[in-house]
Amino acid sequence: MGARPGERRTVFRKTRSHEEAQINRAVLAKKEREASHRPAHTVFSRREGE
């Protein structure tokens, strides 16, 4: 069914590949940060008794 003259349609562009690129970039940045920092020496917990 085509659009009538003067009728506007909403266009949803494909974003999956763009989102995947952002996720991959974030994962890489996280790995770089983890590699450049020493492990935490204290563990914090909100539960009592831990």
Characterise the protein shown here:
This protein is mainly alpha-helical and 50 residues long. 42% of the residues lie in helices and 0% in strands. The protein contains 1 helix and no strands. The longest helix is centred in the middle third of the chain and has 21 residues, at 16-36. The N and C termini lie far apart (63 Å).
Task: Record keyword descriptors for this entry.
single chain, 50 residues, 1 helix
Number of strands: 0
Structural classification = mainly alpha
Unreliable stretches (pLDDT < 50, length at least 5) are none
Radius of gyration: 23 Å
**What's the total helix number?**
1
The helicity comes to 40-55%
Order of helices and strands: H
State mean pLDDT (0 to 100 scale).
80
Strand content: under 5%
Task: Give the overall form.
Answer: elongated
Straight-line distance between termini: 63 Å
Largest pleated sheet: none
List the helices and strands and how they pair.
Blueprint: H1 16-36
What's a quick, concise take on this entry?
This protein has 50 residues and is mainly alpha-helical. It is built from one helix and no strands.
